[in-house]
Design brief:
With 246 residues, the protein is mainly beta. The chain contains 4 helices and 14 strands.
Length: 246
């Protein structure tokens, strides 16, 4: 089986390419935390938020971000925070470049975690439509890639907001995602992670992954370690909007 055929089958098992492409918005609620956020001075920044995601535009709005009624706005080239009255509180252009500063190894501000959460949620809620994007190329795993079983590798062009250029997806026999391996480049080139799927649900004919835990991968075999729990993710209240006729 070729990589493209495997992707076609994955899309079919998750609701179908045509239905994914007709999605115009995904709404949900989100709570997330873990050592990756605590260690960067942002332990509760992603608790009890709402999400409005425009997948084709690569934009995410987080409701209640920064306080009740506030909002955080993500786009790959700009992040911004607004207060409950809609006034601009803070913004940052070219936000990924900020992570090159040494201080970011120990402390993030709200714009940093907004950028991280924005691209991560776009990746997670837009999967597997994400792998059908024009700046993403899929391939079968290389011999040296960690793990076994049914897997699909992806190469992301610099234009795609994501964790790292190369990522690996693991599937079960029903083509459901079980694990997602990547390096969290904005944290550091050493931040190799295994994003483990715990639960999923079907909404409007599409499958979404709603419970995840992220653990470190280390060593020559990239063994998944049980601690620390880097990130936990809980997504609820999913709703999908389609283009007319979708």
């Amino acid at each position: 089986m070729s990589a493209q055929q495997l992707l076609d089958d994955i899309l079919a098992s998750h609701g179908g390419r045509e239905r994914w492409q007709s999605v115009t918005a995904i709404d949900a609620s989100l709570s997330s935390g873990g050592f990756a956020f605590t260690s960067h001075c942002q332990p509760t920044a992603l608790r009890n938020l709402t999400i409005h995601l425009a997948p084709h535009e690569r934009r995410v709005v987080f409701g209640n971000f920064g306080g009740p009624g506030g909002s955080g706005h993500f786009a790959p080239d700009r992040v911004a925070i607004h207060d409950a009255d809609g006034r601009l509180v803070a913004e940052r252009h070219d936000p990924r470049r900020s992570f090159a500063r040494p201080i970011k190894n120990i402390a993030w501000d709200r714009l940093d975690i907004l950028y991280f959460a924005g691209y991560a949620i776009w990746n997670y809620l837009w999967f597997p439509g994400l792998l059908d994007e024009p700046d993403v190329t899929v391939s079968l795993p290389k011999a040296g890639d960690a793990g076994s079983g049914l897997r699909l590798a992806a190469e992301f062009a610099p234009s795609a907001p994501t964790h790292s250029a190369r990522q690996l997806y693991h599937f079960d026999d029903q083509l459901l995602l079980t694990r997602h391996d990547y390096t969290a480049d904005v944290i550091g080139g050493w931040a190799t992670a295994a994003n483990c799927v715990l639960a999923s649900e079907i909404v409007s004919g599409l499958r979404f992954y709603t419970r995840r835990k992220v653990f470190p991968r280390m060593g020559p075999r990239q063994t998944v370690l049980p601690l620390p729990l880097l990130v936990w993710i809980e997504i609820d209240d999913l709703a999908v909007t389609f283009a007319a006729g979708g």
